[in-house]
Amino acid sequence: MNRDDHTFRLGQVLVVCAPSGTGKSTLISMLRDEYPDFGFSVSYTTRAPRGSEQDGREYNFVTRDQFVAMRSRGDFCEWAEVHGNFYGTATRPVEEMLHAGRDVLFDIDVQGAKQLKKTFYKGTYVFLLPPSREELVRRLEGRGTDSAESIAKRLANASGELAQAEWFDYWVVNDDLDEAYRELKSVYLAGRCKPALRPGILGNIMDTWKNNG
């Protein structure tokens, strides 16, 4: 595709964050089902492969020294240490997909999103909100997979995450799933129309006036 053509569009970074139990996985799955061409960046990790996981498919498995060296070079747009292991997203593969016009979807936590915004500040950052604390408790208890202690911890984490919601570009309240999906979809589609992602479109269209007197 010619970058000078008015149809050329750079890819969009779409970041979706939410407290556990808000319904983020369901909404992201719905979006990916309707728009299956989202790019996906294989993360790097220092943990060992599990089960049938393969290097380069689920994760890029590296040693701790390799990860630290990559981090020192500034290769990661976001990284974190979880349970003693490092996880990170390399910047270059994401940039390559974006320059090819492919949108990239990130399902990460708030701290990862804050790091990501330093590199991809033109992205679209969405925070999914539960309608209330009571409803979040009901959903967490309804899953039947968490102990009372785990639920209490998730609620405490949710409070801290909600305090960070103010710097996101959009808020979507997941009270009604269908309505929440319509809003998330609308945000995604609107983001695709940002002028920053359509380089050359205005100039090329204005040129049609010059060429026709």
From TrEMBL:
Which residues does the UniProt record annotate as the domain Guanylate kinase-like? 11-189
The protein's matches in Pfam families, at most eight in alphabetical order, are given as: Guanylate_kin (PF00625)
Where's it mainly located? cytoplasm
* Keyword Kinase attached: yes
Which UniProt keywords are listed? ATP-binding, Cytoplasm, Kinase, Nucleotide-binding, Transferase
Query: Looking at the record's lineage, which domain of life comes first?
Result: Bacteria
List ligand-binding residues for ATP: 18-25
The main enzyme category here is transferase
Location in or out of the cell: Cytoplasm
The role this protein plays is: Essential for recycling GMP and indirectly, cGMP.
State the family it belongs to: Belongs to the guanylate kinase family.
Q: What is this protein called?
A: Guanylate kinase
Question: What organism is recorded for this protein?
Answer: Pseudodesulfovibrio portus
Q: Which gene encodes it?
A: gmk
